[in-house]
Every structure is written in structure tokens, then in C-alpha cells.
Amino acid sequence: MQKQWSYPASFEASLTHALESYKLSLQDSKALAKCVLALSDYFIHKPEDQTPWHETWAQVAYLCYYLPLNATRLRRIAAEAQARGFFRGLDEVIDFGAGLATASLVLSEVHPFKFRLIERAAEPQKIIETFFTQFKAEEWQRTFSAPKLKNPLKTLAVFSYSLTELSTLPEWALQCEALMLVEPSTQQDGRKLLELRQKLLAQGYHVWAPCTHEGPCPLLTQSKHDWCHDRVHFQAPAWFEKLEEQLPMKNRTLTMSYLLMRKTAPPKMTNLARVVGDHLEEKGKDRQLICRSPEREFLAWMHKTGLRQEIPRGALIETPEALQKVSNELRVQSEIKIVED
């Protein structure tokens, strides 16, 4: 059974209140869909342009569509970070290219951070301060100039869907103890993130998630096409399902590529691997790609053994020592134990 994820429950009242200011409600499916389609068309025709925050339809589209979807993705990553102890010792977040503060809103639900948000547009700050009153930011910065780091050893720099605007991480971010990097799950963005992973490792950072090792990534070194991404099963509320009925795109699952990195090394993960591929049914066997070393490896359930198991993508598993290795396959002899999904 795949675990279902959604955005924080505290968002519902804020979304309702915000849409009332546009004389809309969460039940106005057709009107909301019109705004979402307008913003989607805008990005299709002007992919290099900045978000038109000054437009009412863009604000509505972000509130009713992009905020819930991105918050759901980020909630999955925040839960992973929490489980790994990634936030321990950190007390400040600098959220670069914050937009509607989605990453900060989600992080505020799991850890008592102080937040500084870097966002050029003024409209997102007004929306958040007016309707998401459960969230308090220490500061909003209007320029992309380097923020003054109060205590880099306790600072988490967050780049959520904002690296696409940059050729590399800014120098100030590399002074921070921790990095949370989230990108679209496209081949281009995903492989760019894998390349950045290698550079950050060389600069003294350690990977906390999703990787279970710090060697070269086999998806990057042994393939010209693969990239690492996770998938979240979205538990959409009824109003969102009604909205989607008016749209050509459906979101039963959500994908993203991400990295959690710190200058402090993570706890050792002995005999653990992460499932990074979907369940593949092939002739005579089922397979799933896993991450545990610089080798590109698959768990393989041979049909003749009678064993069948589908592991949720992104799950941490124990890897039995008795696995028989044939080429790039690890032949499963008994049910694999899932540590976390």
C-alpha cells in the first residue's frame, strides 16, 4: 500500500480566506481552472520570464494549484529530513527565490526555525502576511544580493525550484552548514542536480538524503540519460479533484528531484539502500533500481521462486547479506524489510 501525502491541514483555512479576497472559493472549479490555465499558457509561451505576480489570475493559480502541489512534495522531503535528524542544530532558514514561501511554510510545521526569505516580487509577501498568519518571517529581502549570515553553522539554505535561474549556487550558500535543494524531476534539472552533488561533495559537504552513499552516482556516471527523482502519491481533497476535472493535467502522483546536504557527516547507514526506481515487470522476473553504492544495481525477484514484492519508490530498505549478485541484479531470496517509506 503506497503512503498518501497532502499539504499541511493548516493551509485549508488560509487558502479559503485568501480566495475570498478575490471573490472566489475552493468550490469555484471553473473559475480557478481558468486562472491555472492562464498561468500555464504564460509559462509555455514565456518560459524565461519571471512569474507575473502582479496579475490576479497568477496569484489565484498559485494559491489553488501550485502551492498545494509543491507543499505536498516538500512535505515528503521535510519528513525525510526529520527522520534522518537533518535539522538537528539548525535554527535559521534562508529561502532563496521563495515565491509564495511554500518551502518555508512547510518547514515551519516541522521545526522551530527563524525564516529569512529572498523574493524580488512584493505580492507574495503581502499574500503570506495577510492570509497565512500562522507563519512569521524575520525578514523578506527584495534583491538577490548576498544576505548577511548571522551564524552560518546553524543556517539552512533552501533552494526550492529556484536553481533553474542560476548557473551554480551563490557563494554565500556555500558558507551555510546545510543545503536543501529541490528541483523539477526533468532529465535536464535532475542531471544538473547530480552534477552539483559531485561538486558539493568535493567541497566538503555530505549527503544526508536521498543517497545512502557518497560515491559517484551511477545514474550520472553509467548513463547519459538517467536521473534521480522521487515520487509522491497525492491525496487530493475533493475540491482539488473537482478543479482537475476542468484541467488537461492530472496529479495522482507528484515527482521531484532533491538533495539534503550538510557539512556535518550523517549517521552511518549500515546495510541500508534506497529504492530509486519503479517496479518493473519483465519476462521471468520483477526488478527495482536501488541506491547503495557507485554501482547501478537492481533488486530482482525471480518468478520461479514465487516471491513477489513491490516496494514504494523512495523507501529505505535493509539489504540482506545473502543476496546473490548476477551482473547488475541482486537476486532476492526472502522478503525485503522496509525501514521507512
Question: What does this molecule look like?
Answer:
By secondary structure, the protein is of the alpha/beta class. It is 29% helix and 23% strand. It contains 8 helices and 17 strands. Helix 1 packs antiparallel against helix 3. The termini are close together. The mean pLDDT is 94.
Summarize the structure.
With 341 residues, the protein is an alpha/beta fold. It has helices at residues 11-20, 29-45, 56-84, 102-107, 123-131, 187-202, 218-221, 238-244; strands spanning 4-5, 92-96, 114-118, 139-141, 155-160, 178-183, 206-209, 230-234, 253-262, 272-275, 280-282, 285-291, 297-302, 316-318, 324-326, 329-331, 338-340. It contains eight helices and 17 strands.
Break the fold down into its secondary structure elements and pairings.
Blueprint (H helix, E strand, L loop, with lengths): L3 E2 L5 H10 L8 H17 L10 H29 L7 E5 L5 H6 L6 E5 L4 H9 L7 E3 L13 E6 L17 E6 L3 H16 L3 E4 L8 H4 L8 E5 L3 H7 L8 E10 L9 E4 L4 E3 L2 E7 L5 E6 L13 E3 L5 E3 L2 E3 L6 E3 L1
Parallel strand pairs: 1-8, 2-3, 2-5, 3-4, 5-6, 13-16
Antiparallel strand pairs: 6-9, 7-9, 8-9, 10-12, 10-14, 11-12, 12-13, 14-17, 15-16
Helix pairs in contact: 1-3, 2-3, 2-8
Global shape = globular
Give the % helix: 25-40%
**Secondary-structure-derived class:** alpha/beta
Tell me, rounded to a whole number, the average pLDDT.
Answer: 94
